[in-house]
Amino acid sequence: MLRTFLLTMAACAALTTGMVLYATAVHKPAPVQLIRVPEGGIQPQAVTDAKGVVHVVYFSGNPSAGDLYYVTSTDTGRTFSKPIRVNSEPGSAIAVGNIRGARVALGRNDIVHVAWNGSARATPNAGDNRPPMLYTRLNKGGTAFEPQRNLIHSAWGIDGGGSVAADRAGHVYVLWHAPIPGKNGEANRRVWIATSNDDGKTFAPERVAWDKPTGACGCCGLDAFADRNGTLFVLFRSAEQMVHRDMNLLVSRDHGASFRGSDISKWNVGYCVMSTESLAESKAGVLGAWETEKQVYFGRMNPATGALAETVGAPGTGKNRKYPSITGNSRGQILLAWTEGMGWKKGGTLNWQVFDDNGRAIGPEGHAPGVVPTWSLVSAFTASDGSFRVMY
């Protein structure tokens, strides 16, 4: 009887210990490591494939007319491959303004797709030096990128940055905002989408993604992401009546043929805020991050509806929080990274915070003062072991 009692107590103690260890594992934040962009580059965009390989695109050279480079890492960012130039036309990329740089997406069979705003030197243009929206993809051998292509047929007038998304079924989407042809002004800007159904080999002419007359913040970026089920998400900032610069979420469940839109964060301000957004997928679901009133926020999308399920702000207050980047790991933890104190021709501080699967901050907020270079931003990604990396 005594032996049975002691064994029962031992079992309970072991179970309790296991529960404590589990709770500790869940609530202890995953480590965060900072990584400088290879070759001293700026504006990194990093994504991790299913095999744990990290794919990075970054900018180098003259901020007004420079080049994009692509590298990979098989050891979660400790070392990188030899850089491959992305743009086939030298000097056809731009970094000025922080928000006009490259975006990268992995499609079917991990094909690498890259899109970016062309510089004033890039061709073709609209005839009055309005730059193109450029796209390329990595060749099958992984040795070089195909010749860059302009995807604008009629929707000229890009200013803020565009984006690219791709899914596992071979659909590729390049999006940007520009005025309706023949019209001017932010109120007449729309989000345009060019769609490919053959892994980026060919694209249909662009069309308006969502016809609600919200306008688009001229010098703000947008972001796009296709999740594992093929649902396409887009975040962009409106400019309705010039002052309603709200964050809008677009969701498409029919491969970009139609979108449902919602206003997820209001911001009334009478000037262009030069903001960016970030979208990613993790165990926590599809995550989106954005800036409103000099604070950064993130939210999770409802898997059933695609709508924003919640909104969480970075803890405390900072100095002009901008350029958020988001990622998550297999434990449901979320890393939100952002910059502070940046401005025109001015670098700033890198900040980050880990959150648990309920959106509660765990561990201290991280700071790396003055490390983000001029015209740059940051890119967060998850390592194969569940730890986090932030490239700056």
Describe this structure in words.
This protein is mostly beta strands and 392 residues long. The protein has a single domain, classed as Neuraminidase. Helices cover 7% and strands 39% of the residues. It has one helix at residues 2-27; strands at residues 32-35, 42-48, 54-60, 67-73, 84-85, 103-106, 112-117, 133-137, 149-150, 163-166, 172-179, 189-196, 207-208, 223-226, 232-237, 247-252, 260-265, 278-282, 285-292, 295-300, 312-313, 322-328, 334-340, 348-355, 361-372, 379-382, 388-391. The strands form seven sheets. It has a four-stranded antiparallel sheet with strand order 2-3-4-5, with no helix packed on it. The chain has a four-stranded antiparallel sheet with strand order 6-7-8-9, with no helix packed on it. Strands 10-11-12-13 form a four-stranded antiparallel sheet, with no helix packed on it. The longest helix has 26 residues, at 2-27. The protein is globular, with a radius of gyration of 22 Å. The chain starts with a helix and ends with a strand.
Spell out the key features of this protein:
globular, 392 residues, 1 helix, single chain, Neuraminidase, four-stranded antiparallel beta sheet, 7% helix, 27 strands
